[in-house]
């Protein structure tokens, strides 16, 4: 079995370490949280690995990843390999690969999907980089992907950047799917025709064209809270949806569903929308339609 250094033991990285270990691989993990880390520093992690070394990075996208890659460039050498499995923007990958390449270090970018369930179910992997580097890391990819045919949970998407590009589009699609389920749930709730909304959604899991893992997760949430009253309808976005839409614009690809899903998330954060106040004012001005004024305290 193979040896791997893993940097970042958060919700994803921790479970990935456990899945890799259960497959027989030796994993040395480093995290700033000493309660989960196997070593006390990045330098110690590198020192524990036999050459040629493979180090997988699972830290937040942006500056944390760039800084970690830069630190590894100082610690690693010719023949080593770095894998960025975080949600980095694909445009960061060329710079990371160039920086590491000056030291003779290879680079792969991997889009990883599976969330907190990946430890048991496996992770969908989309990889960008050179064929030789992909083959070298294949024992780890095979351990992490779901059981079954390789092509159903793994893809070598292309050169450097292709893995993160594929994951970006994947997450944009995810926005649209979640929004569709959410709107269907709200319509069922608003109607007085359907008496048991959770039962209807649960029935969609088998034999229907809308069945999916996301639907199963919605059913799980409804089992815990049938009307989802315990949650506030405030939804953040982690960046990939915005990047996907930017790429759609750059490539002149119509993406109305993905854009609507992202804008719905923006709307969820507005307690009092200036735009909708303007719409209300216009309706009152041209048609005399009724409006609601704010209550003044005191």
From TrEMBL:
UniProt entry keywords in alphabetical sequence: Gluconate utilization, Oxidoreductase
Domain 6-phosphogluconate dehydrogenase C-terminal, chain residue ranges per copy: 163-291
Domain of life: Bacteria
Leader peptide range in chain numbering: none
Pfam families: 6PGD, NAD_binding_2
GO biological process, one term: D-gluconate metabolic process
GO molecular function term, any single one: NADP binding
Keyword Phosphoprotein belongs to the record: no
Transmembrane residue ranges: none
Family: Belongs to the 6-phosphogluconate dehydrogenase family.
UniProt-listed NCBIfam families: gnd_rel (TIGR00872), PRK09599.1 (NF007161)
Protein name: 6-phosphogluconate dehydrogenase, decarboxylating
Species annotation: Saccharomonospora xinjiangensis XJ-54
